[in-house]
Amino acid sequence: MNTQITQNPNTYQSDARFPQVPDDEIDLRELFSVIWQDKWLIIAITAVFAIGSVALALYLPNIYKSEALLAPAAEEQGGGLSALASQFGGLASLAGVNLGGKGGTDKTQLAIEVLKSRQFTGEFIQKHNILPSLMAAKKWDRDADKLIYDEDAYSEATNTWIREVKAPLKPEPSMQEAYKAFSKILAINTDKATGMVTLTVEHLSPTVAQQWLSWLIKDINKVMKERDVAEANRSSEFLNRQIALTNVADIKAILYKLVEEQAKTIMFAEVRDEYVFKTIDPALAPEEKAKPKRALICVLGTFLGGMLGVMLVLVRHFVRKEDNLLSNT
């Protein structure tokens, strides 16, 4: 049997009417050729960025970081109140007295939040008169161990602020400005595994960074101690008034126990200076700068310049190529 295969002549016509268009492909040889042709432009852009990064690295002042390792002070006041809560909880609730029990506020975390608060920071800046060193310091004289202030912002001779700012800002920085600046140089890190707290302060001067960090540790312990003592005194006054008003012996026993616990709190606070944080590793004046990383700045700046140069050359080449194709059509 002879089988005759016929072909549809329209097939070739269809192929002729709709020619296959090859997919766009990137020719690596073309890219390398373009880069090589404009190599001097790339080198020039890279050199500009390299010089700029070197100038920036040299312009940035040295920043020193002082660090201290702190341990939360042992809680020694919760045991008595917890025992009272378990023993007289029912009677205390009848008397309208809350003995607490479980789930009290973490004193360490509370101290950290107070340390980061605007009120504490403002009082700290005013108490130690560090506003010029915080807002107007320009550089540090290593030989004299002295800060040099920006003459356009602050006059050290007359102790006056002369900076030019727009409203609502004033020549003398407000505590809100100072708080923002101080928050940038203060870092607080807590190790969740050990509970240890690391405080760091950065400044142009290593001695200033050490001094400020030492003051911070001392002041936060003092502030938290004064808060607890004031609260214990108020509680004692309230409890003594309640004792005078009740005739129920069991409730009086609870109230006397509570007064005793408040007295223990006051005694505990008065005899210990490191009330919330115990210093494990004190603040030191660092000998080496923490930043800037000048070598890294130079390397990244040069690399960025090279990448931008190559991108500029390639984009310019393909734009010209596209324009030529459009003009030919």
Automatic annotation (TrEMBL):
Its main location: membrane. The chain crosses the membrane at residues 40-60, 295-319. Residues 24-127 form the Polysaccharide chain length determinant N-terminal domain. It is a multi-pass membrane protein. Keywords: Cell membrane, Membrane, Transmembrane, Transmembrane helix. InterPro entries: Bact_polysacc_biosynth/exp, GNVR, LPS_length_determ_N. It is found in: Cell membrane. Residues 278-317 form the Tyrosine-protein kinase G-rich domain. PANTHER family: FERRIC ENTEROBACTIN TRANSPORT PROTEIN FEPE (PTHR32309:SF13), TYROSINE-PROTEIN KINASE (PTHR32309). This is Wzz/FepE/Etk N-terminal domain-containing protein.
